[in-house]
Amino acid sequence: MRTVLLSKSDELYLEKCAQEHSFSYGIIIGHQADVSKSIVVHLARNSEEDADLEDLTDVRLTIRDINSQALASQWLSASKMCPGSFDVIGIFIASVRPDVANERSEEFKNAKKVFSDVYDLLLKTNNSFGVYTTDMAQTDFVFLSYSLADKTLLCKNYTYGNGGTFSNMDFRFVEKPFEWIQFECNYDLDDVIPILDTTRRINIEEQFQNIISTIRKYLIASEVFLQNELIDDTMDLQTFIKKKKLKDDKLKTSSTTSAGGAANPSASSAASSMHLLSPIESSNGGVIRANIIMPVKCQLDDPKDIKVREFSGTLRMSGMIFSRVYCNPRNSIADVKRYLRDDVLRSLITRIQVYCDGLTDPHVNNEAVYISEPPRRVFFAIPSNGSSTSGNAVQFSEYLFRGEAPTVVVAQAKQVLDVELDPETIYLDAEGLPDDVNFNSMQTDTEGEDTRRLTSTMPKRELSRSLYMVGIAVALLVLLASVALHYAMNG
Amino acid sequence: MLPKLRISAFLLKRLERVKLQCSGCLYGVFYGESTLLLLSFNVESSVGQLNYEQIQHKFPAELDLCGLVKFGDCTDTEAHLNEIISSVDITDNPILLQCQLGTLVGLRASFFIHGKLENVPFEVVEAAQLYNDFCFTRLKCGFFLHTLPTPEAIAKEMHALRKRVADGNLVFNVAHTKIYVSSNSGIQHQSFNCDSLIEQLIAEIPTPTEAASGDKKKKAAAAPDLAKYYGAVGCAYDVINIDVLRSRTRDFGAGDSLPYPALSVCITNEDTVKQEVPLELEAMAILCKKTKLLRLYDVLIESICRSLRLFEQCLIERLTEQETTSEVKLLSPRTYHFYPQEFGHFLSCAYLEQLGDDEPSVQEKRKRLHRQFALPATRPYFRRANQCRFQDEIDAVDSATWTPLLNTHLGVRPSGVTDGKEYLVNGNYHYYHYLQQQVQDKGWGCAYRSLQTICSWFLLQGYTERPIPTHLEIQEYLHKINDKPASFVGSSQWIGSTELSMCLQGFLNVDSKILHVASGAELSTIASELAMHFQTQGTPVMIGGGVLAHTIIGVDYCVQTGQAKFLILDPHYTGPDDLATIQIKGWCGWKGLDFWDKKSYYNLCMPQRPILY
To answer: By residue range, what is the domain housing residue B15?
Structure first.
């Protein structure tokens, strides 16, 4: 049976939700520690309807009143913000009434419908939902229901399909803060994808989907090195760290002895073997660095089917995706690798989606060169709910366009994750601003005299759309005025 | 200090065969403290572009231009001495060989030391020692070339591609192992350190049998075995297969360095139509097994760059040959490795897909290549069908589709003819016999099988790409040319040497000589003729007549005593393809005169090599 592990602060948060709002619901962000254990990383109350309700404490809401649309959209936003090792794993309810945590109550029966509604919405409204570097579909979710009246928690496993089924699930409150091992990686996108169909105007959204599917294929075929070393998939993370520490200590002692006794040069050269691998140093804060390595082949699947193709346009990618994930020591190395790949893919999909949402026209006009600058990834620590167990905080991420202020992140984090952030604490420098010098030099390199270059287009969320509307309105006004003037002059 | 000089026995044999006054370039490997091993040469034309510039990229990486050879009384100017010497990059002391015409007597070797020649002694390296001391790496990878179809654009894009290859982000994986070679972290393996040698790497490569038995104690035993599983047909070199990967993660900078820029995408919409050419390349390099592992990364990068240069040359040549018509469609190049028996080393060529071997321009290029390497233009060396067969690929194909045993006579017990000389089939063949491919031909199919063996020889020697004909195809052909009635097709009727010769003519355009022997007792009289056949033609011979059909693949003959024995490949074998059984039970082995039926007549079908290159 699956077990859900919660921290004390999660309990406090549920209590707080029930106290302050009498009935609340929200999403559970969690991490799969091993086959049977899920860790709750963060709970976030849905605040979508707060504004519509005048007196929050007075309304007697029930499960039936849950706005599945609001929950689905929170679910989706949160899954884009959390690292690849985390995911939205379910829904929670916190209420003052005892029947929410009672399996036999009428209330409980409605919970199934909420799940299936939310999941249907997720599948229907978003084609990038549930896109991972593996083909496994998530169909099991966690349902937590907390009743303030008798301070009980009900924990169920929900399986999607055939109207959904609830099955038993254990849960446990853990006193100690969860241990996280942090991994960092970046993925350099220096690919050129030819645009084969040039009979039509180039549709940016389509081309970007093309990028996603290409990179996904690459990632699936990739290998991941940890600290420059290939580690066997079946090993678990804590064994890897133990071995690594042992080896590092050995290296350290051997290098200090050889440095001390310079009389033995042959011994020192032997000790400084060929692994110039960076040991996990304390200066890194215990962060393990990963490298993504990919086969250099024309065709990953079928090497027979390669032909010379003609094209007259290209998608040229430049820059990188910074990735940071948190894993549990019980994870296998295979899990870690998958999480890293998923994180890169998730970040790519998210930034492309944010970018495309801001486009007013998905088509590239006949400009020779069109530079798209999707937003860059920024990180922020999730403050532990209630208690202040700092130092072990995990980081989530958001996306900022050039020129956008970190306050955007603060608002988004409040809305989706129900956390208060200080804009000063947002880490802005994991990814730098793209420099189009790359393309400039490329351009002068290949084209030479082409000057029809369009300056960087950086759509602002919503803003560009409203600007567009204003533009049309002004144009209409001018037209009306000129028509009026025309008649006035003639009349 | 003067470098030590060694010369491959293969090269000496090739030098000996040059009978005209001319000059050429020498190619060798520097290894160890300071040893030069000469492995190859080419003949320079006296006018026009220097040949070595055209062919140097065909050599495996590390086999570089290192000097020149003069045959006969060739003057320095005729030999382009100054140009060639100044092109020698790998050493300050180029080598000069002076060779008499048609003989090795008086062969002199000298190094240029500060512009002066100093004579040096040399040591001959025999095949076995070459196989023992050297190995080859073989890697496969693929790139896309995005280019306009013009020579200038191709040259530029190729240059950019080579720069990318050498940017330090490639990572190499030794196939079947977890050994990775990268530019920043060297080679990761617990048993390697910075003094480790290539031979230690070879010892770590598991062979299929080890993998099956799970034997861990392989260190000592594995090395000599590797060639058997990862070598090439025709030689005993160990071949290290390498997979190529690319690190997509940039190095993490120091703490306060600027972060790398985030993703941006540039969409270009160009007026001109460009082409995407897939470049699936295979690159080889030669390495002394005592070379330090630390060198491996650079050598592998160089081998890829060499292959890319070969591709570039091949793409541009095609463009310049082709008069500019309105539409130029580039073709994708592919690497073909060859192992000419005369060479003792591999050679790689790039051919364009969809441009057949018999296109005049392609033939012309091959002819030039034969001339450049002083090879006769009467047999094929560099046709696609001549490409080298690697053991691991044969094994891979084996498990998917069935292939007969190769060269079953290797390792048979000696004939026992006193003072005899062996004259054997020249090249590779497959052993075809009864009941293969689920054909129930026991009792009637021996001549068909013999024909299949002969066809396999022509296929493996690169004369044809036609698949081996089946029994039915043979019968249909004989009916088609009105040699047999319609009822013959699908029957179990025998065929003889005449039918064989007709089929060879029809299927492969090969002429055959038919030799008639009145009785088995007289077969000794044709031993010398057979010896001559194997010397000049080297093709398998079918013998049929009144009784059973067999394939003769060699003769051991003593001129003085007239004693002769025949190396027979018996198509009547019905068992599984097990080499040991076949050799022990004599299905492939030396047979004396008593093997033949004294009362029966015999007809021999002796296929003649067509003149082809």
So the answer is: 4-125
